[in-house]
Design brief:
Length: 199
C-alpha cells in the first residue's frame, strides 16, 4: 500500500510542463551562465560563492515543489539536467581557471552525460528516471567541492576542495553504475505519483 503525505496537493499531472518546480529549474538554468563568466574572470570570489550558494540551495526548492504539487516526467528530466549544466559548467570553468585538474572533472562529465543519454532514451518510451538518493548526495558533494574551490578562505588550502572533488568522483561513478545496473527498474511511468521523486 502506498501512503501519501497528508500535505501533498496533486495539482499537476505527470505530463505537466508549466509547474512551479519547473519554473525554479528553468530560472536556475538561465542564471548559470552568469556564474560561469564570474568564475572565468575571477576563480575565487565572494560574489561567486554567494551566487553558487543560491543556485545550490534552489536545487532543494524545485524538488520540494515537485513533492508538494505532484511529480512530472518533465521535472524528472529537467531537474537533473539543470544540476548537470550548473555543476559541469562550474567544474569546467574551474579547470579552465587552473583550479581543478581535468581528470576528475572528465570522469564526472562522462558519467553525467551517459546518464543524461540514458534518461533521454527511456524518456522516448514515456519512462522517467527520477533521481535516486545516492545521486542526490553526489550532487551535494559536487556542489560542496565547487563551493570550497570558490571560497576565498580556502584558497591557501586547495587540498580541501580537491578531496571533496575526488569524493564526488567516487559517488558520481557509483550512483551512475546503480542506474545502469537497475536498467529499466530505475524508471517509472509516473502514471501515478512516483515512488522516487525528482529533486
Ligand atoms: O545523478 P542524477 O542524474 O540522477 O542527478 C541527480 C540530481 O542532480 C539530484 O538533484
Amino acid at each position: 500500500m502506498t501512503v501519501e503525505p497528508a500535505e501533498v496537493d496533486d495539482r499537476y499531472g505527470p505530463s505537466a510542463l508549466a509547474t512551479p518546480a519547473n519554473a525554479v529549474t528553468i530560472i536556475r538554468l538561465l542564471v548559470s551562465p552568469a556564474l560561469l563568466v564570474m568564475i572565468l574572470r575571477e576563480p575565487s570570489s565572494w560574489a561567486a560563492v554567494v551566487m553558487w550558494f543560491v543556485l545550490a540551495v534552489t536545487d532543494g526548492i524545485d524538488g520540494a515543489l515537485a513533492r508538494r504539487f505532484g511529480t512530472t516526467r518533465s521535472g524528472a528530466f529537467l531537474d537533473p539536467l539543470a544540476d548537470k549544466v550548473l555543476v559541469l559548467g562550474a567544474l569546467f570553468a574551474l579547470v579552465a581557471a587552473g583550479r581543478f585538474a581535468w581528470l576528475p572533472v572528465a570522469l564526472i562529465a562522462l558519467r553525467e552525460v551517459a546518464i543524461s543519454v540514458y534518461r533521454t532514451h527511456l524518456g522516448r518510451s514515456g519512462l522517467a528516471v527520477p533521481a535516486r538518493t545516492l545521486a542526490k548526495v553526489k550532487t551535494v558533494v559536487q556542489e560542496v567541492a565547487v563551493f570550497l574551490a570558490l571560497l576565498p578562505l580556502t584558497v591557501d588550502h586547495p587540498a580541501l576542495a580537491d578531496i571533496a572533488l575526488w569524493l564526488a568522483v567516487a559517488l558520481t561513478l557509483v550512483s551512475g553504475a546503480q542506474y545502469l545496473l537497475d536498467g529499466r527498474g530505475a524508471a517509472t511511468t509516473l502514471g501515478h505519483r512516483a515512488q522516487r521523486t525528482a529533486g
